[in-house]
């Protein structure tokens, strides 16, 4: 793939396709579209493939960390840019490109604004090709590299909650510090973290994941508004629509900077930890993270993330086997997946 100068049309496709690949997490469509508009006020970011950079070139990941449903979230464009500039000072090698942590409505275009503002390209390799709850799940299995020192810079909040800084330490320690900071900042912080070289990215990231999100968004938006959009998505991803019905019960709690809860539709149950983790019909498992489980408005076809779920909504649920997704090596790491089980009280492994 040659360098592609990104457009607002690409961004719209990336937001909608990313929202679906978010699997219930990854931010809200409206936030993604707003972020896209802001990004293009700084210029037109460029998308490059992993093959356009040298194996030894370093790329840093940009992300938002926090609970999407938190009420006091504030992260502005100067804070997003600040995290990259801090990283360029903190890290001892040049940063040659930026990558996003995952696909999601707001996360697929993570880095577009920062890249345009500081003159770096975005690489077509999100850390993960779907959204996931923990920082470690978005770290391309760096949690298994014992000597790896995580460098993370962060900024967010306003007024008395405004915070910015950096942390260096083990991956778990640094990720936990940033997660705690996000709570003090009002629920969310921007982060630039974990620089790695292209050779590592080729082995562990979801190479081609940004393009996949844009292509999926194009398929979704090419169909007129309505339930046919859901069928088009399921067909494109080689998944299936499991069920359609009204939400009878919904519970969401903020716990430790995450959204945790469940959704009931007739005899179907969804659990989520930011993203949907399991779907069961009459107790029979129909999808398990990292399979993609996603909800849509059954009438309009609009993707609905877990944080905007409500009782009485008429939704459709799709499931896509993990084999049909572009995924990070972390999605096959049993140590990381095992951590989901006590949160949702369900078996994952």
UniProtKB/TrEMBL annotation:
Signal peptide boundaries: none
- The S-Me-THD N-terminal domain extends over 10-146
Q: Which residues form a coiled coil?
A: none
Matching InterPro entries, A to Z? S-Me-THD-like_C, S-Me-THD_C_sf, S-Me-THD_N, S-Me-THD_N_sf
The superkingdom of the source organism is Bacteria
Domain S-Me-THD-like C-terminal: start-end pairs: 174-326
Specify one Pfam family.
S-Me-THD_N
Q: What is this protein identified as? A: DUF917 family protein
Q: What organism is listed for this UniProt entry?
A: Aeribacillus composti
